[in-house]
What does this fold into?
Amino acid sequence: MAFDPSSLRHLFPILSLQANDHPLIYLDNAATTQKPLLVLDAIQHYYRNNNANVHRGAHFLSNRATNHFEQARETIARFINAPEQSHVIWSKGTTEAINIVAFGLEHLLEKGDEILITSLEHHANLVPWQQLAFRTGARLRVLPLTSNGEWEDEFSQYFSHRTRIFAATQVSNAIGVSTPLQMMLNYAKQQGAFTLVDGAQAVAHYSVDVQALDCDFYVFSGHKMYGPTGIGALYGKNHALEVLIPYQTGGEMVRKVSYQATEFNILPYRLEAGTPNIEGAIGLAAACDFLCNQDRSALLKWEQSLASHVYSRLHRETNIEIYSPEKNTTLVSLSVPNIHILDLNAYLDSQGIGVRAGSHCAQPLMAQLGVVGTLRASFACYNTMEEADRFCNVLLEAIDLLLDDE
Amino acid sequence: MTNSNQTLAIKEQLQACRSKEETFKTLVTLSKKLPRLSAEEKIEEYKVKGCESAVWLITEETNNIRHFKADSDAKLMRGVLVAVLSLVEGKTIAEIQAIELTNKLVELNLSSYLTSSRTNGVLAILKKIASN
Ligand SMILES: Cc1ncc(COP(=O)(O)O)c(C=O)c1O
It folds into this structure.
């Protein structure tokens, strides 16, 4: 039986809002998803019943807070199939997690070493590596993936014995394509490179198994997978996390401090300076529970069917260019020659439809596609086929209104 | 139409809008009134920084009177420029600085163009128009 989004829409109260006198249609899920009641309630419950600082003073509430906080870590570990919960480091999100790795590995890089990324990266998985290259004299290289995400033999030449770090996204946020991840990781590992996977766009849709991927680091943000903002995670293999020099230092991450020296704490605390985002961790664990209680492959199929429905309706229009794939994606990324994407966006907004118009923090990719930006409609499990159709109808109306008659 | 009549007409059209959709359609109509700049005029020097759509603004001053030419690659922004320039064209810098431009745009139902989000450059345009 096909998945029915109405079975869980009621869990997302925000979806019943009116926007500009129309029922809200939220299609900007790749930027951030809405949060189910389960997540909202978990955060409320934490503050009402369990709030105290963690790992400090042994008192009733502090013990409760610490237990819930560490249980949340265990939930995240299970969610991505990490072998140990100490391999999960809390971060503000994907961006911070990548920076923790980029700064942490700096001491291992030498002039002439290579850092390899792909041409589909979000700025978060590009700028930290570029800046690391500037600081160390390493060379940033870019594997030129095409927008269909297929592996080409010539790509293997980008991996060399100087490749020290390979960082790639699992799914492109701008054009929705999945990268040939396993193939790339294999080549990178053959060269002995550290490997990092940006899972920001994957976790909401795909079941992730970091042990099967066999990458050194896996990073993601909570807010893109029905969890709160300001929380995310860095998973790492034990040896990979151990070599990282802590990016931030301070309280919590130390064992013994004198004016002369500091002995750092063990993993995971070593990489978590300061009071953590406790409510965020608890909210994110609730989001994992929410997802794990669904039939995840049915959700994914549904999201993909929405995207391919929009694709099939719009690709026939002569004046629409689509950059996302026809299948196996949960978003549609497009532009209309001679019409500005902000104008299309404004009309969709006037009809209550929220999408994203812009470069999607991937300016080099936009340059590769020959556009300044695209209009992106990205789907989540709560979106309906009616919403997908309404998006198409209103977009076509907008094109009619904006097409030049001058 | 004299300049002040024109300003009044633009004001009335925008104030009559009862929804975002009506404002959108009015801005599309207004955008057609904006004479486009030539390729030679669309240079970096005239570009207004902070706008997600490209916006160019040329200020000329004769006998203390300011004249403006502007363009954008986005249609709605051209409509907004028509509205904004109708408030300031042909005035002295002192007169322009005495106008509460942001309040005027709120009166014209254009407040959503004033949010100081990353994507919005209308405030940057107003600043440039009223700069010494
Ligand atoms: C592929 C990808 N990587 C990284 C990020 C950055 O995530 P955050 O802003 O949550 O740190 C995003 C978010 O837009 C993304 O889509």
